[in-house]
Amino acid sequence: MKVLFICRHIPYRPDSGVTARIYNLLVSLSGVSDVACAFIVDRDAGNEPALQECRLNVTNYLIETDKSDFSPLRYIFHLLDIFFIPGKVRKALTAIIEREKPDVVWLEFGYLCHLVPFARKFGLPVIYGSHNSQFRLDFALWKSNPSLSYRLKMALFVLLYFIHERALCPMADLVLCISRQDLDYYRGFMYPDQLRLLPFLYDDGVLAGVEPLRPGHPYICMVGSLRAYQNYAAAMFALEQVWPILFRENVGLHLYIVGELPGDGTPEYRRLKESVAASERVVLTGRVDSAIPVVKGALASLVPLSIGSGVRTKIIESAACGTPVVSTTIGAEGLPFVDGDSIFIADTAVQLAERVLQLQNDRSLRADMAQKAYIKYHDELSCEAGRRIIGEIFRGLSQPDGRPPGEVKADARTGGKV
Length: 418
Fold this sequence. Notes:
The protein is an alpha/beta fold.
């Protein structure tokens, strides 16, 4: 099977949830198929060096688009980019298809389904790989953001994202969902035979040679870019509600918050700094090359998310590192870990703090929970498991009902078309 893999992120520096998902997916995908990657990204001096860091057995193509320095134009171009393919991109993808002669086009993450009709012209089936129920997440973030200017600026985007999802996603031959919750979401406007489950995959082969952080005191960690509103809101909840309880109950424990900080001078940055300054034994690392040493050395990972969709990389990463996790229900949504067995799930500040203290005070409980989480990860979420699942997906892509790629099915309930 020859695959043309198209996305808008170069994943060879997997330093975020998005790039980690794409990179680990390519680890599995390249293990069962011949892969050519086309990365459609804004022109940037760092694109070529990022491509040169690729260590996978794939062929890489870079399609750079020009971005305007004039803010209103960037806004308009992004609006158009959700539905229209720039001529330069169309020409480049045509040349790649003619050269590589793929059997299938794989669109990965974001609003890329406007490329489905383009692939159809070459008679190619199309797989869309979702990282989450994207519109549901974008809408939740838009609705919960306290900034009125942000909500006004993004209102049109949210509307167009909805139109893109409902009008174009069902055109793909297959949409891959990474959790059963997302599967249920897409079933609301797509047929069941268009949907498959492909969980978030993680390659733990890079972990063995990484030494854990040893600062000389016990600590818990929170990982995630604080420029993402859901992570920022979770960090503030931890700092202002969970940490005061832990601080009072355990004099030796520290809290490490790992991830890129909000922009300098923003209200979020000021509030975060003020909250950290008012606390004790809190370490704010900012962006790091790798969070693995911190996660490996922690007695627990704290994931107090209240907004989200899809699957949290940080929980799978912790399971692969052998670090037990304390999460909210939203944080653990879509993962196979079981509360009280391979993870602790709690939704109030008091309950989250209690679970952390329970882990700190019981070494055998920590070891048992970490072992069960690792087994679950290896069997269902590792790249080894991913190669098996992707192989099954490709075998099922032969259109067993005889339909040509992309043909719309009659709705058995109404007799109409969807």
